């Protein structure tokens, strides 16, 4: 199917990123998986070439492009089976908070570093006792003179080891009656006293992603690190979650397409009973079904991305895209893995890793059940 989303500039941008990936990502992936994180240096290299926050205006150090440039990067990372280099989380989830809600002073302070790769960001919402139910977070930020003093812990935080800045959700009003209106967002620098990076968590997939626990023990930040108004955190998060969900859906479709393409090659090479396994009707039907799913997903996601770039409010569509494409990707990858036989169970095969990487897409950025809760609510059910 022809795609109409991208301009000539976006195609050129994709070619440039592919060249970058060939040189700076693919040769290092096995080592990153062993280390449990990507090299710090690759962030700076990506920044130097304009691949971080490409949508940000040039005056803040960005490339002055748009979310479609980010879409290109998300797709290419999925096509290169790189699940740990969390460029999308940084460029398209965390930094947009700074860009939309930051004061001019805050933007000048942080955005150039976010674009250059000097500053790697993370977002700390989830806690050991609260994930889906964000209003139930326990981390507190208490005003003390010109500062806030933060206490609490976060878990499952992507970029948890490498981050230099954390966008942190904390309660400035712990009164349960104000559960939603009591949450504020703070930008916390990693070198603040009382901010401790906990252990890197062992996960079933995304081995090169440094997902970690974070602890805040009487961590003092100046009031100038508060983002937006006190108590506006929940509202800001609701506004920004649409794009976060979209980034996951974009990765899911591109990842499923890549696994399908690689499986098509494999079944033509692998022989059983004197012929390529592509000649068995079961193989053909499974791959045709997978192609149909990918094409339906592709048509939907491209339309939602186009609407998002046009500035439409698409909460329902983004929520549907998130749960449908991630369920779809898991099904497609599972069927493809089956066609690899025993090799599909071996970690050296990309399809095996893709299977494990894909599982989390149904959980993070709001679980797929929560996506359905949102859509049902919007339907007035
Ligand atoms: C690899 C990884 C990376 C992550 N990165 C980050 C990050 O960078 N920053 C961050 O803040 N968080 C991050 N998360 C956390 C992630 O967003 C949460 O795990 C997710 O939102 C679910 O929260 P929970 O784990 O507390 O599950 P729970 O909220 O405890 O949910 C458990 C189950 O109950 C279901 N459930 C809950 N409420 C409802 C309901 N109302 N109706 C129906 N079913 C419901 C859920 O769908 C789920 O199946 C990450 C998680 C992982 C695994």
Any idea what the shape is? globular
How much helicity do the residues have?
40-55%
| Helix/strand order | HHHHHHEEEEEEEEHEEHHHH
Beta-strand portion reads 5-15%
Query: Which hetero compounds are present in the coordinates?
Result: flavin-adenine dinucleotide
CA radius of gyration is: 21 Å
Low-confidence stretches: none
Report the sheet with the most strands, covering strand number, pairing sense and barrel closure: 4 strands, mixed
The DSSP helix count reads 11
Give average pLDDT, whole number: 97
**Class from secondary-structure proportions:** alpha+beta
Describe what is shown at a glance.
This protein is an alpha+beta fold and 381 residues long. It contains 11 helices and 10 strands. Strand 9 (271-272) and strand 10 form a beta hairpin.
What is the secondary structure topology, with strand pairs?
Layout: H1 8-25, H2 29-35, H3 40-48, H4 67-79, H5 87-101, H6 104-116, E1 121-124, E2 140-144, E3 147-157, E4 165-171, E5 183-189, E6 195-200, E7 212-222, E8 226-227, H7 233-269, E9 271-272, E10 275-276, H8 281-309, H9 315-339, H10 350-359, H11 368-378
Parallel strand pairs: 1-4
Antiparallel strand pairs: 2-3, 3-7, 4-5, 5-8, 6-7, 9-10
Helix pairs in contact: 1-4, 4-5, 4-7, 5-6, 5-7, 7-8, 7-9, 7-10, 8-9, 9-10, 9-11
This protein binds flavin-adenine dinucleotide (FAD).
